[in-house]
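Thread: "does anyone have the structure for this chain?"

Original post by V.I.:
We have the sequence but no experimental structure in hand. Need at least a predicted one for the grant figures.
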Amino acid sequence: MPIRFALRAFGGPALVAVATLAVVGCGAGPVKPASELAPPEPASVSPSAVASASRPLTAEQLVSAALPQESPEEDWHPVSVREPQVSDWDDPVSDPACRQLLAAAHAQRPSQPAPTVVGQTFNWKDDNGGASTLASYGNSGAVAVFAEVREGLSTCRYYESPAPTTTYKGTVTVDPAPRLGDEAVQFEVTAPTEVGPHVTQYTVVRTGSVIATFTKLSVGGRDIRAFPPAMIAQQISLLQQAQS
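Reply from O.Q.:
Generated one for you, tokens below.
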């Protein structure tokens, strides 16, 4: 029976909680030591990138652009609009770079104006499922927030955070960036637990004014390791169409 999980992040919904352990994490493919991978290049902000990021989508437009449910085997929760949230810097994530990375990926970094955010969860048969967060920013905010994602990922390699019964210890691994949207990164967090390693994939993509974050949890190697790439590509295509 698959283990369900819920997100808690920085003063709003939490880091990822699975069973009795709060887990946040990311990445797809085999775990590679961070030393074998070059850190992400700093984000360059060109005039065209700024212009493309200055057309925000409304909540209704984001909901309309979310992935549709197409398979009877999929248990997809309705798309929900999230109230604006800002990271609580007192949240006990031990490494400031990791705190910035996770807050920016979850659309909880300070931004003016605040982004419009919608979320969707996916529960596949015999699998722990995944989730997506779509955040649309105004005034080139998506470019600035994605730069904070890159900055945090350049140095975040390990962090600890209190969990209900123990301390969550996450090792961050950078994966090759997918060729999606205007810019993208992918990474994973691996944490030891009593039922085996918990690995959560993060794929973060900026498309114009929207940052889309996809998370996929794997427990003890028994689940689908990566958020389905075809679904990510479809979501990015829908966001591009919505902004055209």
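V.I.: this helps a lot. DSSP finds five helices and twelve strands in the chain.
O.Q.: and The CA atoms of residues 195 and 220 lie 6 Å apart.
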